Amino acid sequence: MYHPPDIGTNDNVIDEFIELRNVSATAVALYHTNYTTNTWRLRGSVEYSFAKGTMLAPGDFMLVVGFDPADLPYREAFLAAYDVPGGVMLFGPYAGKLDNVGDRVQLRLPDVNLVV
To answer: Which residue of 55, 61, 83, 96 shows the fewest CB atoms closer than 10 Å?
Structure first.
């Protein structure tokens, strides 16, 4: 969701999100299994690195948001606004902003040579 409805005349960045879905039949580790501190990352107009140990089960999806999911008022308002099913994992905050016209976001696999 790169351009949620504006709030009055203000750009609504708080309701932006990126959805990642596992369409495979097996769980996906969002980290390098041999170098577990090397994790998957979003890069481009937004920047986010997944925490060590993050997994995405088969058929599940997760949302990466621009606010801290631990902030309960924002979390509850977001979940209600998009009618997000219970159990969907929220990650964030990402740094940056999605452009309202179009943008590039890359999901990068971990590099075995990267030391975090």
So the answer is: 83
